[in-house]
């Protein structure tokens, strides 16, 4: 190779090297000034921050894809309600079982064989209408809340899927019907459930169930009055929140639905738990109580033992002189 050719080759090599260095510098400068972050990460970060987007739906809150309040609601539902609700129900059943084992039922002290009407036909129909719907709502509601956790391990996904779908339909449609029952019970029986001074004597010994003499009681004892007002208060709460959840067509925000669900589920679980006490006392806890609501009639001995003031009033209306109870003789 001649000297001139060699110089020319070296010149091209130096020039090429300078061009490579210059191009690399330009590329590095552009890369440093550009956004090197992950565009997908930026998108989901904006979603989690609640940045609103566009939607043709006019309902408030629907222009935000993911709300942090939804994550909070899910945590409350899954970590608190689902975790502690079964234990609350089991504890209530265990307490009733222990009470029955240690104390036993409240036996009837005197069987006279004579009957006195305690409930009219329409009262019994109203009670069993409401009670039946309450049981349906309790079972379907607990299935919807606990079904995935408790039932899937027992019977598998296909059966639970069908059961939950049926529970959802029944729960949604029976809810408003149950509210009608609550309203009828309140209007029909509120006059019997006004607290009286003698109700305090009932609580001292559970109406003679645990200790001491039986106090004077009207048509309804203090325990039944307590259950009546629980039905009224809890019925209003689960009713309002249930209607909000059942009819999401009035412009409710997602946050309103989430808060309503938490309140609805919490109060409903407490409602069902307390109802165990009412069911216990009305079936195996007090002899003759179930017969009164089923047939409408109770033994005169039962009336004198459990509702002596009411019994005396009934006898006076019939023009008869009420006999004293066994405990008063």
CATH topology heading = Fumarate Reductase Cytochrome B subunit
CATH class designation: Mainly Alpha
Assign an overall shape: elongated
Helix content: over 70%
Report the count of strand segments: 2
One letter per element, helices H and strands E, the order comes to: HHHEHHHHHHEHH
Helix segment tally? 11
Give the amount of beta strand, in percent: under 5%
* Average pLDDT metric: 83
CATH superfamily: Transmembrane di-heme cytochromes, Chain C
Low-confidence stretches: 325-329
Structural class: mainly alpha
General description of the model:
This protein is 71% helix and 2% strand. It has 329 residues and is an all-alpha fold. It has 11 helices and 2 strands, in the order αααβααααααβαα. α3 packs parallel to α8. A two-stranded antiparallel ribbon has the order 1-2. It has one domain (69-328): Up-down Bundle (Fumarate Reductase Cytochrome B subunit), CATH 1.20.950.20.
């Amino acid at each position: 190779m001649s000297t001139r050719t060699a110089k020319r080759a070296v010149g091209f090599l130096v020039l090429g090297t300078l061009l490579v260095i210059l191009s690399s510098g330009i590329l590095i400068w552009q890369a440093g000034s550009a956004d090197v972050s992950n565009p997908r990460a930026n998108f989901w970060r904006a979603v989690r921050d609640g940045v609103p987007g566009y939607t043709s739906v006019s309902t408030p809150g629907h222009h935000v894809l993911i709300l942090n309040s939804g994550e909070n609601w899910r945590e409350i539902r899954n970590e608190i309600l689902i975790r502690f609700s079964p234990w609350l129900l089991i504890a209530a059943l265990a307490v009733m079982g222990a009470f029955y084992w240690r104390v036993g039922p409240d036996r009837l002290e005197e069987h006279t064989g004579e009957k006195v009407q305690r409930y009219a036909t329409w009262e019994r129909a109203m009670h069993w209408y409401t009670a039946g719907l309450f049981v349906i709502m309790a079972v379907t509601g607990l299935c919807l809340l606990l079904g995935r956790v408790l039932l899937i391990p027992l019977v598998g996904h296909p059966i639970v899927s069908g059961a939950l779908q049926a529970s959802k339909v029944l729960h949604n449609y029976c809810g408003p019907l149950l509210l009608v029952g609550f309203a009828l019970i309140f209007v029909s029986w509120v006059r019997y459930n006004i607290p009286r001074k003698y109700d305090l004597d009932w609580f001292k010994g559970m109406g003679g169930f645990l200790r001491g003499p039986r106090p004077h009681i009207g048509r309804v004892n203090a325990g039944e009055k307590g259950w009546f007002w629980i039905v009224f208060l809890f019925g209003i709460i689960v009713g309002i929140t249930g209607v909000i959840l059942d009819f999401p067509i009035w412009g409710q925000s997602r946050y309103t639905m989430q808060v309503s669900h938490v309140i609805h589920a919490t109060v409903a679980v407490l409602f069902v738990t307390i109802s165990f006490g009412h069911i216990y006392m009305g079936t195996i806890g007090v002899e003759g109580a179930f017969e009164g609501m089923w047939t409408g009639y109770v033994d005169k001995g039962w009336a004198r033992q459990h509702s002596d003031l009411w019994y005396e009033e009934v006898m006076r209306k019939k023009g008869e002189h009420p006999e004293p109870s066994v405990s008063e003789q």
